[in-house]
Amino acid sequence: MSSREAVLSLLRGEEGFLSGQELSRRLGLTRAAVWKAVDALRREGYEIEARTGLGYRLSAAPDALTEPEIRNFLGPVAVVGRELRCFEELDSTNNYLKTLPEAPDGLAVTADSQTAGRGRMDRSFQSPKGQGIYLSVLLRPRLSPDRLPPVTALAGVAVCAAVERVCGVRPGLKWPNDPVLNGKKLCGILTEMSLEAETGRVQSLVLGIGINVSQGPEDFSPQVREMATSLGQALGKPVSRPRLTAALLEELDRTYAALLAGDLSAYLSAYRRDCVNLGKTVQLLPFGGGERETAQAVDIDEDFSLVVRGPDGKERTVRSGEVSVRGLYGYTES
Predict the structure, then answer these.
(1) What pLDDT score was predicted for residue 322?
(2) Measured between alpha carbons, how far is 114 from 126 in angstroms, rounded to an integer?
(3) Which residues have a Cβ under 8 Å from the Cβ of 159 and sit 6 or more positions away?
(4) pLDDT above 90 for 241
(5) Bridge-partner residues for 206, per DSSP?
(6) Sheet strands (E) in 26-107
(7) Average pLDDT rounded to a whole number, residues 279-302
(8) Does pLDDT of 1 surpass 80?
(9) Whose CA is closest to 189, among 157, 143, 165, 221?
(10) 96-119 pLDDT, tens per residue?
(11) Which residues lie closer than 8 Å to 188 by C-beta, 6 or more apart?
């Protein structure tokens, strides 16, 4: 632990002031080293009050995606988030993890901004500095590939649970993987799987999640402004990014344990409850193009696929493709 981290840890644990002498004694640092650590923390955005005869007091912490801030809120985790790396900027948190073939199961990576954030079908995901949570987790499940299709849906449930814990409001889920709030997209989720060519064994899953936290309408490009929202925009109040990141890591850790145990019944029930498609008219557009179809969304099956009923009354299961929901993202036609 660096002197800066050590000073921060002690200041966090005190409600009142700690003298420079006491900090120096507890940490085995010189008074000059304590002052330098306090100065470094202030430059990082920590508000540290200093009073003659009393010492130092931490009065406010920055809304920063740094390991000390996230771990301040993070409870015990078994796998996901046990190792955490935080960066000011990456091209993509998913890309970063894909360059680490020997990285451990559950390694989590955050970035304060991304220069090339991606969503499904290589769509751009806007990732402005200081306004969102851009998080990826590396998973190495010892499961066959046919056990893994629910991963993205499970991540959606984890996002909803984390937002509900921190913000007191639960988003809905637009099938297959979009958390939504007030009819607009709040979050993007992208799962990328790597298989061993010779055996088909799963080498890794990289699960990427981007949550809009503090953006205003002006922070979204004109192309997405009408369909995207942020927690701050929807709730009208600020939301702590490190607190929400910690809650998300805890929820993902629980979700991963359920996946490995093969017990997803609670998550399936939660997904069905949160899914905004069900009971609605939807439009189906297969990947790669093709003719749009209109149907009624009637259920989520055991694999988290969408069950729809066509105009002829026949039901079928949709496992991939784009699904538009009337009233969301600009789809209003009958």
Answers:
(1) 73
(2) 8
(3) 171, 179, 187, 189, 209, 211, 248, 251
(4) yes
(5) 138, 192
(6) 47-51, 55-60, 84-90
(7) 85
(8) no
(9) 157
(10) 999 998 899 999 999 999 998 776
(11) 119, 120, 125, 177, 178, 208, 209, 210
Pairing of strands 108-114, 84-90: parallel
63-87 pLDDT, tens per residue? 999 999 999 999 999 999 999 999 9
Place of tokens 């949550």: 211
Q: Please report, as a single letter, which amino acid is at residue 83.
A: E
Residue 237: what are its φ and ψ, rounded to 5°? Answer: -155, 155
Contact 317, 307 (CB under 8 A): yes
Contact 122, 287 (CB under 8 A): no
Length of the chain measured in residues: 334
CA pair distance 104, 108, nearest whole angstrom:
10
Alpha carbons 36 and 30: distance in angstroms, whole number: 10
In contact, 125 and 114? CB cutoff 8 Å = yes
Q: With contact defined as beta carbons under 8 Å apart, do 324 and 331 qualify?
A: yes
Q: Residue 182 half-sphere exposure, CB side, CA atoms within 13 Å?
A: 13
DSSP three-state, residue 308: strand
Q: What is the mean pLDDT of the chain?
A: 91
Query: Do 62 and 44 meet the contact criterion of CB atoms below 8 Å apart?
Result: yes
Closest CA to 214 of 238, 198, 194: 238
Q: Token pair for residue 40?
A: 């470094």
- In this prediction, residues 279-293 reach a mean pLDDT of 79
At residue 262 the predicted structure's pLDDT band, cuts being 50, 70 and 90, is very high
Distance CA 84, CA 71 (A): 9
